[in-house]
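INFO batch 0412 | record 1 of 1 | parsing
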Amino acid sequence: MSSSSATASSPAGVQVQVEDLHKRFVKGGQTLHVLQGIDLSLAPGEMVAIVGQSGSGKSTFLHVLGTLDRPSQGAVRFDGQDVFQRGGAALDALRNRRIGFIFQFHHLLPDQDALHNVMIPSLIGGEPPERAQERAHQLLERVGLGGRLRHRPGELSGGEQQRVAIARALVRRPGLLLADEPTGNLDPDTAADVFDMLLELNAESGATLMVVTHSLELAARFPRRLRLVHGRFQELDA
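INFO prediction complete | emitting tokens
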């Protein structure tokens, strides 16, 4: 799959606008203010790294941006449309079609082989099985796992499992790709290889990319870096 063909068949990256975003949790009768009035704009295809201390709210922000959780206050707009004005089924459909997720722990189905794990988002989205399988096969070839299609997660190394997770995240050609510590569970050499693959594939797809990472070394490879402090973002110098 060449870079030009991937770009031509993929939708443009999502333009993201976050306005006065708040997220609060109530625990033990006390209110915890995690996100406190975030304003953020992401251009289509922009690549951004988020750093910050553990517990600062990085994953919480990613979950809200990915519509896995609703904000307590504020708006998230994709291409000018407020996503949280949608009902549950419409929001689920948007998430399936336009957002790809990669997590620190891959969340692959242990009883399914690599090919079917990558196919699942397409099948949920209503694609014909033949087309879903062809696309999944192409991506697994692209991430270097063409010979491991029928292997289940337990038969794959940690790095191979994360490559399957990357292929699964990209299978629907999302306009927004969100990665939460995607290499945090890997040894440094494997992490570097997986990170290289993620950046290369995202450059081909043209998706807007946001990655949460504890690694300042990995974050330094992004043209834009944000630090989450006291519930708000600080821009880091290039």
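INFO post-check: The chain has one domain: 13-236.
INFO record closed
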